[in-house]
Design a protein that fits this description.
Number of helices: 8
CATH architecture of the largest domain: Alpha-Beta Barrel
Distance between the termini: 28 Å
CATH class of the largest domain: Alpha Beta
Order of helices and strands: EEHEEEHHEEHEHEEEEHEHEEEHE
Bound molecules: ligand PPE
Helix content: 25-40%
Number of domains: 2
Number of strands: 17
Radius of gyration: 19 Å
Largest sheet: 9 strands, mixed
Oligomer: single chain
Length: 307
């Protein structure tokens, strides 16, 4: 997914020109994956651009930093304002926002504690992560031969940059085998999540999504989907799933900020039900699509306006 340059990137409290947002090659995070980050989307609403669940994303960013003992030199409210500033100053409406906390230049070696902590926030217009066709008709997924990290190897509760080498290995494997997305299992064999999205299974009217203990990130879209589904009267449980639960489901879908809500059409070539996006997936997809644009009264608080 190409990046579409805008004008300014926020770096350590200042707006710098897009092309000047540079770092030294000896920056710690570049070598050891020692940063934490977020993926956030803003949408156009009738009252102007609004960032979806911005406060929650900044809480997760600071929580991720806490897990890694990174002392972020900005407060929650400063970061919230900085995100809004980046959207506004670049004249963006709907866009993707990428805050990154990284350890910069100054020390080399596995001890990250003496390194300077830098923060950048960039935003640009970004289309459907898994393609418009995927959103409409569903994607084909494959169980990866790569396992999700055990929570005592790399903590899934923190959105650490280094964690994503695991996702990249799985993604490339799936793409090279002709699939759209990978599904990772935990070291115990339970379904964890996709490379950058949470998973949901619908079976007999019950909706299940895997827990953090199976290696899944606690997704903000996952939480939104859970609220929407419960408000529609569908029971949602956080529970372990086996790969056969995916093969035998009535519906399978994924959720994430970049991807939004996307049906899964098949898993390891086992077509999910009749291969068409199911009614629960469709309903949740539609409400989510409207909610992020501020069109659903009960979820208006999720839209944090920029102006
Ligand atoms: N699991 C993983 C591993 C993950 O990276 C994400 C977000 C999620 C679940 C869903 O979380 P949430 O966005 O809060 O609903 N992935 C971000 C980065 C994706 C990327 O490819 O980069 C995102 O969607 O922005």
């Amino acid at each position: 997914m190409p990046i579409v340059a805008t004008e300014k990137i926020w770096m350590d409290g200042e707006l710098v020109d897009w092309d000047m947002a540079r770092i030294h090659v000896l920056s710690h995070t570049l070598h050891y994956g020692s940063g934490v980050f977020e993926g956030i989307r803003a949408y156009m609403t009738s009252a102007g651009p609004a960032v979806f669940r911005l406060s929650d994303h900044v809480i997760r960013l600071l929580d991720s930093a806490r897990v890694y003992l990174i002392d972020v030199p900005f407060t929650h409210s400063e970061l919230v304002e900085a995100v809004k500033q980046v959207v506004a100053v670049n004249g963006l409406g709907a866009c993707y926002i990428r805050p990154l906390v990284f350890l910069g230049y100054g020390e080399m070696g596995l001890n990250p504690l003496p390194c300077p902590v830098n923060v950048s926030i960039a935003a640009w217009e970004w289309g459907s992560y898994l393609g418009d066709e995927g959103v409409a008709s569903g994607v084909r997924a494959k169980i990866s031969s790569w396992q999700r990290h055990d929570p005592n190897a790399v903590p899934p509760a923190a959105k650490g940059t280094g964690m994503y080498v695991n996702s990249s290995l799985a993604k490339v494997e799936a793409l090279k085998a002709g699939y759209d997305e990978a599904i990772l299992l935990s070291s115990q064999g339970y379904v964890s999540e996709c490379t950058g999205e949470n998973l949901f299974v619908v079976k007999g009217g019950r909706i299940v999504t895997p827990p953090v203990s199976a290696g899944a990130l606690e997704g903000i879209t996952q939480a939104s989907v859970t609220t929407i589904a419960r408000d529609l009267g569908h029971p949602v449980e956080v529970a372990n799933l086996l790969r056969t639960d995916l093969y035998l489901a009535d519906e399978v879908f994924l959720s994430g900020t970049a991807a939004e809500v996307v049906p899964i059409r098949s898993v390891d070539d086992r077509v999910v039900a009749d291969g068409k996006p199911g009614p629960v997936t469709r309903q949740i997809q539609e409400i989510f699509h409207a909610a992020v644009r501020g069109e659903v009264a009960q979820y208006k608080d999720w839209c944090e306006h920029v102006g």
